[in-house]
């Protein structure tokens, strides 16, 4: 089964969807490994047409769902290495990668691969949590440290965070000192310009738990769906080369509303890219 509207072959497809069923460091509730399969299944429940962007992803967009990358269980470093190698080939081919997690640590190898192909990369980060811990429970590789690990190679002035509402005092001090937490998308657009390559990572827990309960570390006080789409659509003129959708844990929300929300978000993000 592929995501609704997927072409049958990758040929001529500018956008490639890939699932990364990894939840090896989930510190509270896990199950993110089941997200990509559940997203494919539930994608059949919504339309391929987006009224907001006047685009039908089946008819107007050449995209290919390359299914899931097979990953070993119990070996975080090996899994990350496989994700990096696998995604690098898509970036080298000039395709726009749509990654479906998995836990947020998956974003580390995705951004690493993207950065190796696009050294002038900018990163836009939507999340409830800062993810900037130096280590978590003694581990340097964790969903709670992922953005700090990315800043081991990506300059902090090319890192733009939105809607963060949870973290340690140290993390908030870090964001203040490095001015990584942004409020106005238009200022970020002006700073990045229309040419520089941009990767967008979306931790789904940026949404309020009343909108999106299906995630392992819910944090009250979040945004609604339309605010998220509206903010992402302000980036439509940027050179987006990759985007990911992380931390859906479908078994936590058996209404499947959270999964459907990811499906719709993927469709609308294709609309954003098409609207350029
Ligand atoms: Mn996160």
Keywords summarizing the entry:
single chain; binds manganese (II) ion; 7-stranded parallel β-sheet; Ureohydrolase; Agmatinase-rel; Arginase, Chain A; alpha/beta; 276 residues
**N→C terminal distance:** 29 Å
Which sequence of SSEs, written as H and E, runs from N to C?
A: EHEEEHEHEHEHHEHEH
The largest beta-sheet arranges its strands as 4-1-5-9-8-6-7
Task: Give the helix proportion (percent range).
Answer: 25-40%
Strand content: 15-25%
* Shape-level CATH architecture: 3-Layer(aba) Sandwich
Family: Belongs to the arginase family. Agmatinase subfamily.
InterPro entries: Agmatinase-rel (IPR005925), Ureohydrolase (IPR006035), Ureohydrolase_dom_sf (IPR023696), Ureohydrolase_Mn_BS (IPR020855)
Keywords: Hydrolase, Manganese, Metal-binding
EC number: 3.5.3.11
Report what the structure shows.
It holds the Pfam family Arginase. Keywords: Hydrolase, Manganese, Metal-binding. The chain is an alpha/beta fold. It has a single domain (15-274), classed as 3-Layer(aba) Sandwich (Arginase, Chain A), CATH 3.40.800. The protein has helices spanning 35-43, 76-92, 107-117, 146-150, 169-178, 185-192, 225-233, 257-274; strands spanning 15-20, 49-50, 55-56, 63-68, 96-101, 122-126, 159-162, 197-203, 239-246. The strands form 2 sheets. Strands 4-1-5-9-8-6-7 form a 7-stranded parallel sheet, sandwiched between helices. A two-stranded antiparallel sheet has the order 2-3. β6, α4 and β7 form a beta-alpha-beta unit. The two termini are 29 Å apart. The structure holds manganese (II) ion. Residues 104, 127, 129, 131, 143, 203 line the site of manganese (II) ion. The site of manganese (II) ion (MN) has 6 residues, from loops.
């Amino acid at each position: 089964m592929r995501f609704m509207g997927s072409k049958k072959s990758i040929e001529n497809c500018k956008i490639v969807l890939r699932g990364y069923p990894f939840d090896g460091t989930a510190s509270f509730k896990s199950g993110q490994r089941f997200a990509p399969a559940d997203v494919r299944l539930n994608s059949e429940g919504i339309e391929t047409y987006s009224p907001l962007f006047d685009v039908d992803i089946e008819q107007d967009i050449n995209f290919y769902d390359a299914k899931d990358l097979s990953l070993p269980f119990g070996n975080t470093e090996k899994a990350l290495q496989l994700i990096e190698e696998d995604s690098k080939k898509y970036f080298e081919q000039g395709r726009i990668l749509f990654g479906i997690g998995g836990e947020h640590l998956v974003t580390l190898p995705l951004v690493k691969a993207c950065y190796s192909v696009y050294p002038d990369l900018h990163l836009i980060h939507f999340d409830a949590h800062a993810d900037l811990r130096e280590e978590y429970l003694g581990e340097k590789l964790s969903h709670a440290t992922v953005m700090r690990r990315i800043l081991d190679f990506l300059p902090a002035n090319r890192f733009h965070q939105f809607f963060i509402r949870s973290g340690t005092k140290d993390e908030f001090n870090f964001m203040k000192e490095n001015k990584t937490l942004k409020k106005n998308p238009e200022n970020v657009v002006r700073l990045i310009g229309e040419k520089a390559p941009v990767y967008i990572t979306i931790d789904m827990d940026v949404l309020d738990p009343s909108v999106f309960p299906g995630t392992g570390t819910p944090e009250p006080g979040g945004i609604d769906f339309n605010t998220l789409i509206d903010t992402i659509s302000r980036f439509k003129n940027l050179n987006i080369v990759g985007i990911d959708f992380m931390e859906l844990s479908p078994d936590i929300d058996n209404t499947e509303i959270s999964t459907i929300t990811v499906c719709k978000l993927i469709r609308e993000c294709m609309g954003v890219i098409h609207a350029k």
